[in-house]
Write a structure and sequence with these properties.
With 111 residues, the protein is mainly alpha-helical. The protein has two domains: 59 residues, no CATH class; 51 residues, no CATH class. The chain is built from five helices and no strands. Helix 1 runs antiparallel to helix 3. It is extended, with a radius of gyration of 18 Å. The relative contact order is 0.05.
Amino acid sequence: PLTLQKLMGALCGLFGVAFIMGIEALTDFDPRNLGQLAVLTAGLSYALAGVWAKRHLSAQPPILNAFGMLLGSAVLLAPIVFFIEGAPSVSLAAEVWTSLIALSLLSTALA
């Protein structure tokens, strides 16, 4: 359950990120601050997802939960990325593909 101690920890983390960003980034809307706002929102989303997953997905294997989270975020973000950035170019060098595969296998799949 969400205890006062856990809530205070999440709020401290959220306020810590807001403090590092700077109060002016939160009070004065500027399109340049959208990235910082996205980071703040991602932190809040990550905290809420942890609480929700612990409550509703504790019976599932952790690897299945991680797979579902990554698949769900990819499905949700892919149309947005294609709309904003357009179709990706596939003219990447071999070392770029190697780096992408290594990053996905070593950092994500094995973790």
